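Please, structure for the following, as tokens.
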Amino acid sequence: MAIRNKGNLSELKARMNAVKVRIDRAIFFRLSFIGEKLVNYARSITADIGYTDQTGNLRSSTGYIIVKDGIVLKSDFDEIQGPVASIIDGKSVGLNHAISIALKHPVGYVLIVVAGMDYAFAVESRGKDVLTTTEYLANEEIPKELRKLREQIKRMKL
């Protein structure tokens, strides 16, 4: 006895596409939530454990992008002015650095959080927190948020 399709194939395809769109939207919003949380934390690190802005470039270069299949869906980099003027645009440097990382991950969803100035590591090596505690926060929060995402997807009506 053969199995026969008694339903409408185009309806099935439309329904599956609608489910895919809902899942994509859930992934995007969850990654946005994580990115905002991490970057807000990184930008709010005070000078006692972090660093004091001079030009604002390092803090301006701190942000995130969300990429899907090599396409940037969202970026968040804010221009911060320090007490010393600079001709360098930290916001653009950070975005370009994040995009250069994204090029190495052409498939699937990717959340990239960066401090894009080339001297960020030097600041960290002097005992100032640029992204170190943000990384610790990410290691705690990302698994929690991915569990929430899985549960959200399971609850979706297919």
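DSSP finds five helices and three strands in the chain. The radius of gyration is 20 Å.
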